[in-house]
Amino acid sequence: MDIKVLGSGCAKCKTLEQATKDAVAELGIEATITKVEDFIKIMEFGVMTTPALVVDGKVVSKGTLLKVEEIKELLTK
Amino acid sequence: MKQKILAIANSNNAWILPLLLLPVWFLVYYQLQSVADFFTDAIFNMETGSHLAESIRFFIFEVPKVLLLLVLIIFVVGIIRTFFTVEKTRKALEGKSLFAGNILASLLGIVTPFCSCSAIPLFLGFVEAGVPLGVTFSFLIAAPMINEVALVLLVGLFGWKVAIIYVATGLVIAILSGWLIGVFKLEKYVADWVYQVKSNQSETNEEKPSFSDRINAGYKAVIEIVGKIWIYIVLGVAVGAGAHGYVPEDFMGSLLGDQNWYSVPLAIIIGVPMYSNAAGIIPIVSVLMEKGVSLGTALAFMMSVIALSLPEVIILKKVLKWQLITIFVSIVAIGIVIVGFIFNYVM
């Protein structure tokens, strides 16, 4: 699974990145988590509100700081 | 208990809990003065009229009052916001003409969910979709300046009249500043790479949120925002309470009263470097006004703290050339000065 956290380094984006790592660890799944901070790349996903979460190229959440439980739900869908 | 509340919140009857809590809210809210009096006079057994007693009475009354107002308004605004998304707002503004577009953008700026950390992707998304630059600026000025936290604090500490004046003049500044930026055709001062951005605008089929989703968004907003700013409010009111009891009336009048023409520009210069502490600043300003700071100066100060912030300008530097940043800051600052002068001299 390929997970991207989109965000330009604000506090919320860092928190989401950590929450995503925790969610992946708790689920025990294989996933690469990358942080995307370049605005041009962020815009390629059509996202205007950060932080956003992209799973396998699909935007699953934007503009909200998800909790670990919520991320787990999104990843297991 | 918490589990139980969450279980109720997640069911289809999500509206029941807020409806039950509303009378409780009103009951508590309208008893605050007697509770504050009870604590100061009976429990602490203090002499009415002494500086310390009045400071403590102010603190015990204002902190729960502002927090109660915050919880109610943020909950309601959190629900309203679920009806608006940046995507819908962008669609509404695409290719809009000047002025009409500026008015719409400023109004949508109030209700569209916005966090200043998303200012850049939002700017890119708007400009790339064909929202005119001036219209985009109207949105970017109104969105942070007129927000629910500022509104609650203004209503709670200054009353409805000042709150309405703040919102109305804030809207006028956002509309006219954006309109001017549009009229001057400043697109050439946007960083060159901005117009090369290609965004993928494929319609993500958003699920329409259910009614309980909307109620839950209200809870989430309350927990997130109140959780973040309550400490600033407590500190701000504490400083205000200290000043309330001890600083003599009219103390500030000599420096920031309406006799001094420079009080408004001075307030703006002090206000710009202060950032995101609106929650703590407004309680202090409310007490300064009691001590002789005039309404125009206080409004100018609050607007400059909230709307013109150094960190936000630095963020915008990534997408704007310095000429446009200078023009943007100047226009908004002049707008705030005019508002300050109008209320100091005309009203």
From TrEMBL, chain A:
Q: Which domain of life is it from?
A: Bacteria
Residue span(s) of domain Thioredoxin-like fold: 1-75
Between which residues do disulfide bridges form? 10-13
Report if keyword Acetylation is assigned. Answer: no
Pfam families the record matches: Thioredoxin_3
The keyword Cell inner membrane appears for this protein: no
**Keyword terms of this UniProt record:** Disulfide bond, Redox-active center
InterPro entries from the entry? Thioredoxin-like_fold, Thioredoxin-like_sf, THIRX-like_proc
Tell me which residues this entry annotates as catalytic: 10, 13
This protein's name: Thioredoxin family protein
User: What is the source species?
Assistant: Plebeiibacterium marinum
TrEMBL record, chain B:
Q: Which GO terms describe its cellular component?
A: plasma membrane
Its topology with respect to the membrane? Multi-pass membrane protein
Q: Which residue ranges run through the membrane?
A: 12-32, 66-86, 98-124, 136-157, 164-184, 229-248, 260-286, 292-310, 322-346
**Record keywords, A-Z:** Cell membrane, Membrane, Transmembrane, Transmembrane helix
Localization per Swiss-Prot or TrEMBL: Cell membrane
Instruction: Please give the chief subcellular localization of this protein.
Output: membrane
**Homology family:** Belongs to the UPF0718 family.
Q: What is this protein called?
A: Permease
Task: Tell me what organism the protein belongs to.
Answer: Plebeiibacterium marinum
